Amino acid sequence: MSWLKKIDQALQKRRSQGLYRTRFVNQTGTGRWLQINDRRYLNFSSNDYLGLSQNKEVIKAWQKGAEQYGVGSGGSGHITGYTKPHAVFEETLSDWLGYPRALLFTSGYSANQALLAALLEPGDRVLADRFSHASLLEGMLYSATRFFRFEHNQIDSLQKHLKKPCSGETLVITEGLFSMDGDSASLGLLHQHSSAAGALLLVDDAHGIGVKGVEGRGSCWQEGVKPELLVVTFGKAFGLSGAAILCSEDLAQYFLQFSRHLIYSTAMPPAQAYALSVALKCVREGNHLRQQLQANIVRFRQGMQGFRNLLSTCSDSAIQPIFFKHRPSIQEVALKLRDYGLWVPAIRPPTVPKGTERLRITITAAQEFDDIDRLLEGVHLVLS
């Protein structure tokens, strides 16, 4: 079979399954509204939970950073790409979260893969929550280690794996706030059992940082847990992009020596790091934004109580998935909501397991009560 034929068959199969992905040109950024072609939509698909992507202070900081340092880093952080804004932000971030060191990466995907690639060796073992992010699962697949997925948020399932012998070291992986269901991990128990077994705990808190805990310090801080490895990302509540690994001094030095992502990849632009320091200040001082976000979440969940044909998780987070009892075409439901001026993503396999298709509604502080009410009206019209 030729390459072209192989590719054509894969695309045809994806189309026939109704799972073909399409990108749209968003002409307005990721604020309260989206504009696709000539139409505006209320945006219920963004992870910009605090609305900081449109924050004037953050925008001005990026502009100031670009004027002072240029628009690119010019190389790896091991050559000339590590600048004063990078160093300042790493130090401020690590102090804020209570870790000796923070290391910056261009994305959460990159940070997770870099960590797994550098840390794991043959004979080691990974135990990951079944609902862990694709970047973590893919990193395990590409490693030379054995990996197992314990049942979602089931400590008994983790314990069964921990009791089995392992010739190497064990790494336990979870998300702090799960990206598809919006529920939280049992971090206290996970850390307790991981530590008792001599395992390291890695928490990816992409969706909790900035939103949960005092000053938005995240899921781990809120639960009084300090995992050996904490990954936080800046494409959600911080409103920008990039990520960081928080860890001990020894682990940081190890990654600096052995993480190919750090050694061979161009560093994030210093202007971005400069803007991230201002975004962190906004996050820390953003109690009013977190209060507005929570008020919007409560209004949405209260409005959903009257819908009999829908199922939802017990999520009290900004992530509000909706499941349909009779399993209509999720894509068709999303398209009908667009007709009503609402942009809500349909989540289908392989992103989620077959049979768990859902609408993934995200609530943000930038939305108004009228927006939430319009969403509820749209869902009602689609179901009637």
UniProtKB/TrEMBL annotation:
Pathway: Cofactor biosynthesis; biotin biosynthesis. InterPro entries: Aminotrans_II_pyridoxalP_BS (IPR001917), Aminotransferase_I/II_large (IPR004839), AON_synthase_class-II (IPR050087), PyrdxlP-dep_Trfase (IPR015424), PyrdxlP-dep_Trfase_major (IPR015421), PyrdxlP-dep_Trfase_small (IPR015422). GO terms for biological process: biotin biosynthetic process. It catalyses: 6-carboxyhexanoyl-[ACP] + L-alanine + H(+) = (8S)-8-amino-7-oxononanoate + holo-[ACP] + CO2. Pfam families: Aminotran_1_2. PROSITE patterns: AA_TRANSFER_CLASS_2. Gene3D superfamilies: Aspartate Aminotransferase, domain 1 (3.90.1150.10), Type I PLP-dependent aspartate aminotransferase-like (Major domain) (3.40.640.10). It is an enzyme of class 2 (transferase). One of its GO terms (molecular function) is 8-amino-7-oxononanoate synthase activity. Belongs to the class-II pyridoxal-phosphate-dependent aminotransferase family. BioF subfamily. This is 8-amino-7-oxononanoate synthase. It comes from Candidatus Williamhamiltonella defendens.
